[in-house]
Every structure is written in C-alpha cells, then in structure tokens.
Amino acid sequence: MKKLYSIIIFSLALVFVANAQTSDSPWAVSLGANLVSVSDDSVDSGMSLGIPSLSLSRYIAGGFSIGAQYNLNSLEIDNADVDYSSVEAILRYNISEGDIYPYLFAGYGLSNFQKNSDAEGFFPSGGAGRTYLGGAGVSYSISDNWNVNASTSFRSTSEKGSYNHLQHVVGFTYVFGAQDTDKDGVSDKKDVCPDVPGLKEFEGCPDTDGDGIPDNKDSCPEEAGTAELNGCPDSDDDGVADKDDACPDEAGSAEMNGCPDTDGDGLADNVDKCPEKAGEALNNGCPHDDSDGDGVADKDDACPDEAGEAANNGCPAVPEKLVSFLEGENSTLLFVVNSAVVTEDSSTKLKELTELLNAYPNANVIIEGHASSDGSMAYNQTLSEKRADSVKDALIEMGVDGSRLETVAYGETRPSADNKTAAGRSANRRVKFERKVEIKVVE
Questions:
Q1: What is the CATH number of the domain that holds 396?
Q2: Residue 395: band (very low, low, confident or very high) from pLDDT cuts 50, 70, 90
Q3: Distance (Å, whole) CA 334 – CA 212
Q4: Which domain, by its residues, includes 425?
C-alpha cells in the first residue's frame, strides 16, 4: 500500500511539473473544511466536520483541470474514535464559465480510517483502501484571484477496514500563475490591450484622456470627448467632431462638414465667396450679373439690356420691335413676274428681320408664299411654294435657325389687290410676314 501511495504522489508531481511550463493556464490552491459521513449500514456512524481540506490544481484546456486533494477529519464509528485522511488525484470539468460556474469531477486515491493512533506510516495498511470518487460542485468568483467553492462527492472503497462514504467540502480558492505581460493586474487572457498597461474596468486598456472611454474604443484617445462622438470633442456643439469639422469653432451642419451656410445657397460659408448673398456653386457662391434687373442672369438672358421674363429667357413677353416690323410695310417682299429670286431690296428687309429674330430667340416665323392670277392655278401654287422656300433659305443663310422657320403657300387664292389690274397683280406677287410671333412671308 505504501508503494502504491508513493506511485500516486510521484505521478502527481510529474503532472504538475509538466504543466507548469504552460504559463497561460492558471494554477489554483484551495483551503477549506470537509464533512464526512460513512455510507455503510453495517456500522454506526455520524457526520463529522474536519479541517483542513487542501487542494492544488491546474487548468489545462477546454474546461478541464487536473490536481490533487488532501483531507483530514475525525469520525466516530461504532463508538470508537477514528482518524480519517484521504489523498487523491482529481480531474475536473467546468460546465460553464463566468462569475458562477458549476463543475463535475472524478478521481482516484486512498482513504484511511485509522483506529490505532500508534500505527506507523502516513497511511497504515490496516485501515487504508483504494478509493474511486465522483462528484459535483460550484464555484463563485469574488475577485480576480479569489473564489468561494463548495462540492460533494461519493467515494467508493471496498477494502477491509475502509468504508464507502460521502464527503462535502467548502472553502476558498486562490488562482495564480496567469501571464500579465503589461503588469497592469489583468491577465493576458482577459486583457484586451495585453501590451499596454490599463485599467481593470476597461478590460486592461488605458484611458489616456480620462473621458471614460478606453483608448481602444476612443477615436480621439488624447482628447477628451463624448461617447456619442466615439470619444472625440466637439468645440462648437454642432454634432460634428472637431476632427471631421471644417469649421470647428463655428456651429454648422453635418451636410456642410460642420460649417454654416448663412445665405442658404447650398455652399458652405468657408468656400462661399459671397456667404451672405445667395449664389451659384459654379460662380463660387456669388450671384451672376443681371444688367436689366429682371431676375435672369446676363449669362442666361437672351435680352440682357431689356427687362423680360424668366419663362421667355429674359426677354419681354411681347416682342414689341418684332411686332412693329411685322405690322409695317417691310414685312412684305415683292417678286418679279414668274420669279422666286429674292431681290436686293428684299434682302435688306430680311437682314433687319434676322436681327430681330436674334433678339427674340423664342419667336418663330411662318413664311407665306403668294402669287398673282397670271398662269394656271397649279403653276401659281408651285411658284408661291418656291418663293416661300427661297425666303426661308435666305434667312437660314443669314444665321436664322431653320427650326424656327415654317413655310406655307397659297398660290393665287389669297390676293391682297385686284388681279384685273397690272398694279394689283404686281402687289400679289409677294411674300408676307404676318404677326403671330411667327412671321408670314407673302407674295
């Protein structure tokens, strides 16, 4: 039996020496009291409290720990005083982790029920028996290094002089041996910032600026700020952190990168050359010149020197000069007999019309072609079409956009004078520009 005991102690020593090389796994030493009650109907025995209950263990991995436990107690069995002692190797499994965690354990060792106090040896063979055990417990963490635990186990030993029994243990556990690289009192396993000394309340991370936000979560670790802005300050209280604020000393909006927009033109004051007068971004926030004061910038005003309306590109709604031209005699272009050629006199009139059309870019023109009653109606219809087309071509050549010109021909059907006279027929060979903000050209 002594040989078996020596083998167990030697094996445990080897286990602890081997595992001591793994510094990441903490050691634990426990001290407490034990309650023992014999579970054997053949004897009369009660429950007895004894001290100490000592254990040493080491966490391995995956919730498992290995260790050794030693217990002393005094029992009364069949009215005789018995000294009880036990030593065993324990394998423990933590069911869960946290401040409170339950665990299961099993082990093998020796239990001694010694009636003769004069017997020699630590575990005299007369009352010692090999023991198998299994049990459960719970541990509660009261600090980083101290736990309170309680456990109960059933121990089976069938050798002569020993008894099956229950053992309950309560006590304190001190955990040590965890690595702490930065020496801040937080083990590397729990330290979010293991290489930088920090505070326990911040899981081992520092708070350099003292704003209550640890540096690892602080976007501005050296400037005190607010949690809403991830630890960054906001000098002007506009909701934009100073580091992102183009105007940190002047309240603005997030849309303007923290700057104000005094004139509301969509351009922040720090880039607006006219911050108190609404303008356009393409003009650096300043308004464009408006010579005639009609609200249409000169660059968009087709009539920059004449007040007009925005809907008419800055020109008056009624193009008075054009209307005056159309109502005058210059709006009638005359042609010679059987001809569609624009005369020199008509060209002068068309130049004047071109200038007016350029001044009123929204005005379109209808060119009406006419003919006298000389010849057949079919011939006169064709001739009036040619005359209208020749006037259109002349205007296009002078710079008028063809999309603004429309032609219509009436032949001899709409005379302006009596075709029975030579003077009347001459007056009917025409192109007429009628008022319509379009222009009619008649023969």
A1: 3.30.1330.60
A2: very high
A3: 95
A4: 320-432
What are the tokens at 306? 């004449």
Q: Strand 80-94 relative to strand 405-409: parallel, antiparallel, unpaired?
A: unpaired
Tell me which long-range contacts 20-25 makes (C-beta under 8 A, separation of at least 24): 20/58, 23/177, 23/178, 23/179, 24/178, 24/179, 24/188, 24/189, 25/58, 25/59, 25/60, 25/61, 25/177
Q: Which residues of 139-165 are buried (b: 16+ CB within 10 A; e: fewer)?
A: bebeeeeebebebebebbbeeebbbbb
CA-nearest of 47, 17, 25, 22 to 35 is 47
Q: Does residue 298 belong to any structural domain of this protein?
A: no
Domain count, the chain: 2
Distance CA 146, CA 138 (A): 14
Q: Does the residue 162 lie in any domain?
A: yes
pLDDT in tens, 284-327: 888 888 788 888 887 777 778 778 777 777 777 667 788 888 77
Contact 48, 36 (CB under 8 A): yes
> Residue 388: inside a domain, yes or no?
yes
Q: Hey, what are 379's tokens?
A: 């011939």
| DSSP for residue 205 | B
Among the candidates 113, 142, 176, a domain finishes at 176
Q: What is the mean pLDDT of residues 391-400?
A: 94
**In contact, 169 and 133? CB cutoff 8 Å:** no
